[in-house]
Design goal:
Length: 149
């Protein structure tokens, strides 16, 4: 009653890295605190699904301050294993419009105690061309040709 729930907007979901263990993604949220006092993030959890199949799940204990009357960006790192990614790709999805669902929870500290804030979002994701299987195979082929001579 005395604490207004912050407004959370999902800004984007991006691939940020590719390594031997999988794909690194970043979920960017904007949190607007309309309260007359600061709020503090104590941690979060998330569950990302594609076509009702689990893609990534995780949690972390990170402290971030959400100042009063200000929009603050929050970046959540997500790691997707190649095995999970291959299961999704078997569905022959359009790489320009992959539907996803996000269910997350933000654990906030307020002057009146803790507040658990749910974040639910559905959207579509376009896989950047440089991370599509055909492009990656072409890069691998070029690398092998250069090192094979």
């Amino acid at each position: 009653m005395f604490v207004k729930a912050p407004v959370v907007k999902v800004r984007d979901l991006n691939v940020v890295s590719l390594d031997g263990s999988g794909v690194g993604m970043e979920l960017r949220l904007t949190v607007q605190n309309a309260n007359p006092y600061d709020l503090k993030l104590l941690g979060y959890n998330y569950d990302v699904k594609v076509m009702a199949l689990p893609l990534a799940r995780g949690e972390a204990r990170d402290e971030v301050s959400f100042p009063s009357g200000v929009e603050t960006d929050l970046r959540i790192p997500i790691k997707v294993s190649y095995g999970d990614l291959m299961e999704i790709l078997k569905g022959k999805l359009d790489p320009d419009q992959i539907p996803y669902e996000l269910q997350a929870g933000l654990d906030l500290q307020t002057p009146l105690g803790r507040l658990s804030l749910p974040v639910n979002h559905s959207g579509t994701y376009a896989v950047p061309k440089q991370f599509r299987p055909g492009s990656l195979l072409n890069k691998l082929g070029s690398f092998l040709k250069q090192n094979g001579n």
